[in-house]
């Protein structure tokens, strides 16, 4: 744990401008996070290159370590890259406005078609017609008809034996005749990216001349996202992307990959199977998901707001000299409390949230933090400076004064001794186990 702490909240003590070394160190973490989130290799590489150039030389704000500062810069850059031009579906065209959905089989095209139709009819009271062009799976047209009933949106009557472009034309004719505002064309996907699917989509596009062509892609799409988006954009031409299953385990790296290779905006995200589980794309949310740095950005902000850097620097200096007494420990505990207690702090560190149960089992919770502070508060200054004089009678007095047990005092003293020893051993080393906190 302390390794993770020092890794993420890296304990470089000085402030000033970010050096190339600071940036490179933090970037190793970031690179790992991007790849774990399934951002395509090339995309991750060029993104990191760009941020590195931008970050070197930036001033580190007070109370934040260089590592945290870099993560914040990366986060901001991710947000900009993902959504600087956040856009809704564009309906600015003569009615009926055609929207064409493309993507692999199972990516969520049919579901998203119905979700979008529901949203458009709900909000603007627009009249929407949906048409399934999926001639490959007999149940597909029926599936759209069922969803249509559910969201109370009309679907094009099913006629057997027509090709997808023919159905598209029929849908547009029907939409004109029925004075619909919008017609959504739900195409057939394939399990893999293949030529037949591309050719079919291109044919439909020629026949229907849609105003929007939306690529529907699963958030779990990994390294393939680049090929998927590039192929569809080159062969068919996209106007936007919808990312589905953002409610699942997918880390959303696909969003960055697809955005990077096509330059097309991610317009909507699917967050569940229900018909109202469609949301406007929020770049900050996906950036957080991709980075997976817990909520390190808000940690930075909290730290900046709360930590008294002067005091912390003084404690750190004492730590380095190996003079770490109970007053210093008290200072550390207070800072942890300010950061929302161990619970709050740990929750912000990736990987640690999962350990919460173990932490609770180890009794490492906020009430413990408070009790430990109470114990130290019940000591005399002399005792705090020199814990060795704490024999049985003094401990009894302190236990009574702080409403704790002698056992707990022993545990605290043991912890303090452990920390002090470690610091001594590191003697003169730049960082103590909590230097990241102290100097943050
Ligand atoms: P299509 O083959 O591209 O038309 O995919 P479908 O629309 O038929 O969706 C395939 C499955 O994914 C269905 O079971 C949907 O309920 C499910 N699905 C679609 N979008 C989402 C989403 O955003 N979240 C979740 N959890 N499931 C989704
Ligand atoms: Mg379908």
Automatic annotation (TrEMBL):
Membrane spanning stretches: none
Binding of GTP, residues: 103-110, 186-190, 244-247
Cellular component GO terms held in the UniProt record: plasma membrane; signal recognition particle
Function: Involved in targeting and insertion of nascent membrane proteins into the cytoplasmic membrane. Binds to the hydrophobic signal sequence of the ribosome-nascent chain (RNC) as it emerges from the ribosomes. The SRP-RNC complex is then targeted to the cytoplasmic membrane where it interacts with the SRP receptor FtsY. Interaction with FtsY leads to the transfer of the RNC complex to the Sec translocase for insertion into the membrane, the hydrolysis of GTP by both Ffh and FtsY, and the dissociation of the SRP-FtsY complex into the individual components.
Quaternary context: Part of the signal recognition particle protein translocation system, which is composed of SRP and FtsY. SRP is a ribonucleoprotein composed of Ffh and a 4.5S RNA molecule.
Free-text domain note: Composed of three domains: the N-terminal N domain, which is responsible for interactions with the ribosome, the central G domain, which binds GTP, and the C-terminal M domain, which binds the RNA and the signal sequence of the RNC.
Name of the featured protein: Signal recognition particle protein
Gene field: ffh
């Amino acid at each position: 744990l302390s390794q993770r702490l020092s890794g993420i909240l890296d304990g470089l003590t000085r402030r000033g401008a970010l050096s190339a070394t600071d940036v490179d160190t933090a970037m190793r973490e970031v690179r790992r996070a991007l790849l774990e989130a399934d951002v395509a290799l090339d995309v991750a590489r060029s993104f990191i290159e760009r941020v590195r150039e931008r970050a070197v030389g930036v001033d580190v704000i007070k109370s934040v370590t260089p590592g945290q500062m870099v993560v914040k810069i990366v986060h901001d850059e991710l947000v900009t890259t993902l959504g600087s031009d956040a856009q809704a579906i564009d309906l600015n065209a003569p009615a009926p406005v055609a929207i064409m959905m493309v993507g692999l089989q199972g990516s969520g095209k049919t579901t998203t078609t119905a979700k979008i139709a529901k949203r458009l009819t709900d909000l603007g009271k627009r009249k929407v017609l949906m048409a399934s062009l999926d001639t490959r799976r007999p149940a597909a047209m029926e599936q759209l008809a069922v969803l249509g009933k559910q969201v109370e949106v009309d679907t094009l009557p099913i006629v057997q034996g027509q090709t997808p472009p023919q159905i598209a034309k029929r849908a547009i004719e029907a939409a004109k005749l029925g004075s619909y505002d919008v017609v959504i064309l739900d195409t057939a996907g394939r399990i893999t990216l293949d030529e037949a699917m591309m050719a079919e989509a291109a044919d439909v596009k020629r026949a229907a001349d849609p105003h929007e062509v939306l690529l529907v892609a699963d958030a779990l799409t990994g390294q393939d996202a680049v090929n998927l988006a590039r192929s569809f954009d080159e062969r068919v031409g996209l106007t936007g992307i919808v990312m589905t299953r953002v409610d699942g385990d997918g880390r959303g790296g696909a969003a960055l990959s697809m955005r990077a290779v096509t330059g097309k905006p991610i317009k909507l995200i699917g967050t569940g199977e229900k018909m109202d589980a469609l949301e406007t794309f929020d770049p900050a949310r996906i950036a957080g998901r991709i980075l997976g740095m817990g909520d390190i950005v808000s940690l930075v902000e909290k730290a900046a707001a709360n930590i008294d850097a002067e005091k912390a620097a003084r404690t750190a200096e004492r730590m380095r000299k190996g003079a770490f007494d109970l007053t210093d420990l008290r200072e550390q505990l207070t800072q942890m409390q300010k950061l929302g207690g161990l619970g709050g702090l740990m929750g912000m560190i990736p990987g640690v949230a999962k350990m919460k149960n173990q932490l609770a089992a180890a009794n490492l919770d906020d009430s413990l933090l408070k009790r430990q502070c109470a114990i130290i508060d019940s000591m005399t200054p002399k005792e705090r400076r020199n814990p060795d004089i704490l024999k049985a009678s003094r401990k009894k007095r302190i236990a009574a004064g702080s409403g704790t047990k002698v056992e707990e005092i022993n545990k605290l003293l043991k912890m303090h001794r452990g920390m002090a020893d470690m610091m001594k051993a590191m003697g003169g080393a730049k960082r103590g186990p909590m230097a990241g906190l102290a100097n943050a």
